[in-house]
Amino acid sequence: MRRQGRRYPEIAAELGVSKSSVSLWVRDLPKPPPDLDRLSRMREARWAPHRERTAALRRATRAAASGEIGELTDRELLLVGVGLYWAEGAKSKPYRLREEVVFVNSDAGMVRVYLAWLRMLGIGPERLQYRVMIHETADVGAAERYWADLVGVTVADLERTTLKTHRPRTRRLNVGEGYHGCLAVRVRKAADLYRRIEGWWYGIVEGVSSATRGGCPN
Questions:
Q1: In this structure, are 94 and 196 located in the same domain?
Q2: End-of-domain residue from the set 33, 67, 101
Q3: Which of 46, 50, 93, 104 lies in the 20 to 30 Å Cα band around 160?
Q4: Are residues 120 and 153 in the same domain?
Q5: 117 and 189, same structural domain?
Q6: How sure is the predictor about 123, in pLDDT bands with cuts at 50, 70 and 90?
């Protein structure tokens, strides 16, 4: 049994003897190589309950936090959208003046919030252009259908997809069925909108700065 890779406790239990007796009997036999599959199963059995508890706690915390938000007012959505765009959207630089409004993201939720923000600002669908950006080795057709469904257009309405060249040496983690690449959302004739976004952002910064200068109330 030892040559078959059985461990002391298993042999002792099957023969009805103590582990010390088994150790004495097989001490001259070479130690069997570790059973990697068995060790993996043991680790899984040990950590599975912990992962399940953590996952349950994560779901409960997320649900509770989500319930704290409720429906956004227009002003709240305005502030959220400005922060979202200034973090993720294209910005003009002193050395490259480009007053355009382009938002690129891989997160469907962020894209939905951004589009709701544009609707609230009165930007109609006729001013929007959509382009999928994805690795050439991915399922391009599925990604195009995914994003088209999300924003409510047909695949034919999308701009030509931008394909990123595959580099075999790069170990990518964004693969599998859940990978849809990114969606770029461009607003046509958006110079004035860009200037307003820039002004809103500076207004937020100034508002925070003013509140900080005011100090804490007694």
A1: yes
A2: 67
A3: 93
A4: yes
A5: yes
A6: very high
The amino acid occupying position 28 is: D
**What is this structure's pTM?**
0.72
Side-chain half-sphere exposure of 48, counting CA atoms within 13 A: 6
Percent of the chain whose pLDDT exceeds 90: 58
Per-residue tokens: 218: 């007694």
d(CA 160, CA 148): 13
User: Looking at residue 117, what is its pLDDT?
Assistant: 98
> What is the Rg, in whole angstroms, of the alpha carbon atoms belonging to the chain?
29
| pLDDT for position 45 | 82
* Full residue range of the structural domain in which residue 100 is found: 74-166+176-213
Q: Is residue 123 part of a domain?
A: yes
Q: Which is more confident, 31 or 178?
A: 178
- Give the mean pLDDT of the chain: 85
Q: Which residue has the tokens 């195009």?
A: 144
Domain assignment present for 2: no
Residue 130 CB-half CA count within 13 A = 27
Can you tell me the distance from the alpha carbon of 118 to that of 105, in angstroms, rounded to the nearest whole number?
Answer: 15
Q: Please check whether residues 58 and 158 belong to one and the same domain.
A: no
Secondary element (H or E) of residue 164:
strand 162-164
